[in-house]
Design brief:
about 200 residues; mainly alpha; Helix Hairpins; minor pseudopilin epsh fold; 3-stranded antiparallel sheet; globular; binds manganese (II) ion
Length: about 200
């Protein structure tokens, strides 16, 4: 069963002004579709083609050498973007409860966590992602290059922000820090809290 781009769980224009409608169409319909098409092409005919994308990306080192690179980039792109769309909701949702407490305990406060996460995104040279992960039972902030996923490093992604220019350039131009700061307005913390509960 080949991979498919999941439908957005909200209308294309509903994250505006944080993320504009044209960016959502290009990013979801064109960029994510291209990752899916290329991942399917790379995996076709292998024993991995019918496996969930999480399993493939977690076990990247076990893949045949000739498809490792394409699957790392395009399978990673499919996994990362699928998580990204689900991590947002129009107007955002509130960070509360056990996850809020754990973030404050680990990073000093929620505001300090946000600053450190934004710094990870700003500091990622070129294209990549900023992440909140569970690593060895502990919350951590990491960044990855290109479409590399924390899953491949044995970490569980809870929240990821795409800092490729295609994610923000139409609205924010070169101002990646402004995009990272504005993005909190659309984060779906309910979904992140569910991932945290499952990961512990
Ligand atoms: Mn992207």
């Amino acid at each position: 069963m080949a991979y498919e781009v999941p439908a957005l769980p909200y209308p294309y224009d509903s994250l505006a002004p944080t993320i504009d409608e044209e960016t959502m169409h290009l990013h979801h319909d064109k960029h994510h579709q291209a990752y899916v098409d290329k991942a399917n092409a790379a995996l076709e005919g292998t024993e991995w083609a019918d496996k969930p994308i999480e399993e493939v990306i977690t076990n990247l080192s076990s893949l045949p050498d000739d498809i490792k690179g394409p699957v790392r980039n395009n399978g990673g792109g499919h996994y990362n973007h699928s998580l990204f769309w689900e991590s947002m909701t129009p107007g955002g949702s509130e960070l509360s409860g056990e996850l809020a407490d754990a973030i404050a305990a680990k990073f000093g406060s929620v505001d300090e966590f946000k600053e450190k996460f934004e710094a990870a995104g700003v500091g990622q040279f070129g294209s990549g992602w900023a992440w909140l992960v569970v690593d060895g039972g502990e919350l951590a902030i990491v960044s990855t290059a290109n479409q590399d996923s924390p899953l491949t490093d044995g970490k569980t992604p809870l929240l990821g922000n795409d800092v490729w220019e295609h994610a923000y350039y139409l609205t924010y131009k070169n101002a990646r820090p402004a995009y990272l700061k504005a993005w909190w307005d659309v984060v779906n913390w309910d979904v992140v809290a569910e991932r945290y509960a499952a990961a512990k």
